[in-house]
Design a protein that fits this description.
Blueprint lengths: L3 E2 L6 E2 L21 H18 L14 E3 L2 E4 L4 E11 L5 E8 L4 E23 L2 E29 L2 E22 L7 H13 L1 H28 L4 H4 L3
Antiparallel strand pairs: 1-2, 3-5, 4-5, 5-7, 6-7, 7-8, 8-9
């Protein structure tokens, strides 16, 4: 339990010692008058560990650098079908949290995330019609998306395990806004170099249309990935250890 120190008649609530099961996690007193700030700082301090996946000597999770995403499917009928697989994303550990709102009574965490730049690579299988051009191909994919912002809401719940109370993410809502992006798809039009170059140029000149179709699948994939990561971390400590009185 945290200690109370009262110098100059001002009250400060100090965090208790780190958890033994995940010693690199900074805990926050549930009575902290600025709980949102404390939670933000706790996540920021965890950033290097999230990047490598090494939370402590005894506990590891899949690393954020690079972040492996599940397959993203886009399907808007016969005119727009695409699958992106074996995706590796570089840069997610550079995230910045802003405007965090914490409601411990309802176990809701609401915040903004800013990601300046994400680069990615993977595989694609594409058959789309953009305006008057039919574009198709199967091959390697790479690209960059910049100035990415997301609104995230974590809906959590408590559960009991071996007589102790823990917290987990029940649902994670993610809404992404991507300012701009650039794609490079190898072997469009069965590898015809002229048509492939023209197809990539056309996609990038109309990237807003492409990004708008890509976003829902990206939101689902990120939500599933980060929900699993959050739950892996939170099951290492009880609710009272993470948010002591």
């Amino acid at each position: 339990m945290g200690s109370l120190i009262v110098p100059n008649k001002e009250l400060f609530i100090c965090s208790p010692p780190p958890l033994s099961t995940a010693s690199s996690i900074k805990v926050c007193s549930r009575n902290d008058p600025d709980l949102s700030r404390c939670v933000t700082e706790s996540v920021d301090s965890l950033r290097p560990s999230l990047a490598t996946g090494k939370i402590s000597d005894e506990f590891r999770i899949p690393p954020l650098e690079p972040l492996a995403l599940s397959t993203i499917n886009m399907d808007r009928g016969a005119e727009f079908k695409a699958t992106f697989s074996e995706l590796l994303v570089y840069g997610p550990s550079k995230f910045k949290i802003d405007n965090l709102k914490v409601n411990l009574d309802k176990l809701i965490f609401d915040f903004n995330i800013f990601l300046p730049k994400l680069s990615f690579k993977g595989k694609y299988d594409l058959k789309i019609k953009l305006l008057l051009l039919n574009i198709a191909g199967v091959g390697d994919l790479s690209g960059i998306i910049e100035n990415n912002q997301a609104r995230v809401k974590l809906l959590c719940e408590k559960y009991t395990k071996e007589g102790k109370e823990y917290m987990r993410v029940k649902k994670m809502l993610v809404r992404i806004q991507i300012e701009k992006g650039r794609f490079d798809m190898k072997d469009l039009f069965r590898g015809d170099p002229v048509l492939s170059q023209a197809g990539n140029q056309f996609i990038n000149e109309n990237s807003r249309l492409f990004l708008d179709e890509l976003t829902p699948g990206l939101e689902r994939s990120l939500s599933d990935t980060f929900k699993a990561t959050a739950n892996e971390i939170m099951q290492q400590a009880t609710f009272d250890e993470i948010f002591p009185a």
